[in-house]
């Protein structure tokens, strides 16, 4: 089977084929070039992405990306300690917020997951330390897939801990986006930079 053709924008630098889904969207292209596939250790960004991947379920990432600032405002920067204390009053308020995806189940899952995240951090030290436990082993089959062994393991463990909207496909997208997997097409102009960032990245230390 021949490889899918790359996306070639006017700047002449080839990008991953999925960029062709929104060829004139500068925000989407910047996300591909500057964020997707680059390793992340920041706690707020990791939790935000776990939540936004859940909100994306049944939708396109482009839809979520263009509402990301609205999500950040509505959920107060995805501060887990604040969100863990929210309840029905905040859910009702968020259901009226046009800046986000107004889906009760996903909003409630975000607040639930914030509380579960507080518990997780108390156990293992940090969300980053926990997440990076699920980085694929060398040679493990993870590339150009919808889900993988690491995403199934992460999904299963989060569900065991009471998290919601964390299925294996959603978690594989999270692993790709947060740089635990460099899934840029090897012909993509961004692949070398993402790979260099992964080589230089200092993995967080987790408690045994």
Automatic annotation (TrEMBL):
Transmembrane segments: none annotated. InterPro entries: Adenine_glyco, DNA-3mA_glycosylase, DNA_glycosylase. Keywords: Glycosidase, Hydrolase. One of its GO terms (molecular function) is DNA-3-methyladenine glycosylase activity. The keyword Membrane does not apply. It is an enzyme of class 3 (hydrolase). Its EC number is 3.2.2.20. SUPFAM superfamilies: DNA-glycosylase (SSF48150). Coiled coil: none annotated. It comes from the Bacteria. This is DNA-3-methyladenine glycosylase I.
């Amino acid at each position: 089977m021949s490889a899918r053709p790359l996306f070639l924008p006017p700047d002449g630098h080839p990008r991953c084929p999925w960029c062709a889904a929104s060829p004139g969207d500068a925000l989407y292209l910047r996300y591909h070039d500057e964020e997707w596939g680059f390793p992340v250790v920041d706690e707020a960004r990791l939790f935000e992405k776990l939540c936004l991947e859940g909100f994306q379920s049944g939708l396109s990432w482009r839809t979520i990306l263009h509402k990301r600032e609205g999500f950040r405002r509505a959920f107060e920067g995805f501060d887990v300690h604040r969100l863990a204390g929210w309840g029905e009053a905040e859910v009702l308020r968020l259901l009226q917020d046009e800046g986000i995806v107004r889906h009760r189940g996903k909003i409630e899952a975000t607040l639930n997951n914030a509380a579960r995240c507080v518990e997780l951090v108390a156990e293992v030290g940090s969300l980053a330390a926990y997440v990076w436990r699920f980085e694929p082993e060398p040679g493990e089959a993870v590339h150009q897939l919808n889900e993988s062994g690491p995403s199934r393991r992460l999904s299963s463990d989060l569900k065991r801990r009471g998290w919601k909207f964390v299925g294996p496909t959603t978690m594989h997208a999270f692993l790709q986006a947060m740089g635990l997997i460099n899934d840029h097409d090897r012909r993509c102009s961004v692949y070398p930079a993402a790979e260099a960032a992964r080589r230089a990245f200092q993995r967080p230390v987790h408690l045994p």
